[in-house]
Design brief:
The chain is 39% helix and 19% strand. By secondary structure, it is of the alpha/beta class. The chain has a five-stranded parallel sheet. Strands 9-16-10-11-12 form a five-stranded parallel sheet, covered by helices on one side. The chain is elongated, with a radius of gyration of 30 Å.
Length: 665
Amino acid sequence: MQDDGDNTGRLRLVVVGNGMTSVSLLEGLEAGDALHRFDVTVIGDEPRPAYDRVHITSLFSGKAPDALTLYPASWYAARRVRLLTGQKASEIDRVNRCVRLERGDSLDYDFCVLATGSRPFVPPIPGTDVPGVFLYRTIEDLLQIKEYAVGKRTAAVMGGGLLGLEAAKALYDLGLATHVFEMAPNLMPRQLDADCARTLLQEIEQMGVRVHLLRAASGVQRRDDGLEVQFSNAEPLCAEVLVISAGVRPRDELARSAGLTCGTRGGVAVNDALQTSDPRVYAIGECAAWNDKVYGLVGPCYEMAETLAGNLCSLAHGTQLARSFSGASEAARLKLMGVDVTTLGSPIGAQEDCVLLSRNEHGARRTLMLRERQIVGAMGVGEWPERERVADAIARGTRLSRRQLSRFERDARLWRASQPAHVVDWPAAATVCSCLRVSRGRLGEAMANGCNDVDALARQTGASTVCGSCRPLLASLVSDPDPSSHAPAWRVLLVASALACALLLAWLVAEPIPFASSVQSRWHDIDALWRESWAKQTTGYVLLGLSLAALSLSLRKRWTWLSLGRFSTWRNAHSLLGVSTLVGFLLHTGLHLGANLTLALAAAFLAINFIGAATGIAAALESRMKGGSYAPAKRWRPRLAMLHIWMFWPFPVLVVFHVISVYYY
């Protein structure tokens, strides 16, 4: 048995795993003025230093891999931390207190920390190793997908959970017709109830991504034209790219081989001090099982790292372990494929004797988990103005009144004032960043200390540095516009839609363009557009062609093989074509709307364009606006879009009758 410490008196600390959690541990040791008291070695099996895995999908939008790096190798060196990348630990020798590497080296330790994270689960079916099949976990995985997808048209994602939907969005943004198949009856089955999952599915399919539920893959075969995914209960699905995102499993094999106790469902068992069954070995992050529970979100992993850093600081200073991990919130506020998804409190199924109360308001679904009127959890899809108040009620263990329950059943809200308070007016205890549990009060303290922009607040408190969904709240707090969160090309959509509305409103009060009073007038040559048959036919067919071109937006959303370009580009083209049809309508009719069926056709055409323009304005504002001003646009956009679609259906029939009447009579 070795003595504690190296020849300099520093405690030898070996950290197995170089991810976001282990970096958070090092930051905690440095903040506690204890990092210099340890001789630290960090082992990472990836070829690069730790990086931001939460935002890994940004690689598809052009972000460089190095831009995701949390700290360069020089950061570790400056703190006398030995960083070993591209190397894998093969054994923990607990008797001799050393970690052996696959390449044969041995690292002595006084304390060892397992932060090995998780690995993707690959279903045990044939064909998952053929070309064109990828995992979605590391930077290398995504770079391979991005390179392979060039020139491809179709893709499929195995798994409808958080990571699967993120992968689907990335493939969709690459211009591939994308399918998602999930063996459960709902999307995100671990986080959402059936009603919320159904609302999420509708929003995703409205974008053009096809979702297939209750599909159990039985194998993958390579064909000449791509891949064929076979199912035990459905017809095969063909795609050129397949991404497997069927969940993760704790990487506990190193601990098991060392004889450490593991949880019943995997993960290295730890106590409140995050010690394993060997008091010299600790475990944190996705590989740890606390109270037989494995956390999969980065927020709880950071809390584990903070707790362990405090205890290691105590060891370094020769005092007793002072920190305890007592569980962590799994609340999440996510933006999945452009859709707000909220989970608060206990996950669905984690609490016994709970009832679900679910209601819909303006296309947004909200569900409460109740135990004898005490709110223990909540989930929602879409805008939820009361979200922060609900989160606070869960944290306080609030027991809802019967009046509140009646109001929720009637209006899908618990309090009278449904308009969200500005983040400036939130109480100090309100949580702004769910991932890291950063409160409004803590942000206020940071602002008082000179943090007066979003980036400064993020650096000081960590808020918005994980999933980023609270970044608009930080921007509102410091009155700092945050253009990074706006949807692309929203200005084009807004200008085109506003121009269309202006033209239509002007025509409501305008008189029909008069015909020339004399054949000798120059105007007589112009009004031939509305008198001469050949001119009427020409402008009529041009107008019909423009209308059909505008209709292609619907085809882009519903025909999976039509995968060229981004949806936002198609939507902007649709709005510009809408404006061009109004110009064509003016040239075709001169605002002479006719009578009977001709008048009905003109009225239908103008109504379709007016509702479409209003939908475009709502969609643009939905991308641009934040906070309370954002809610009306979010509420009205899907209503107007559906009305726009329904008003189109009489149009083809009226066009056919109009053409027949012109040629017949």
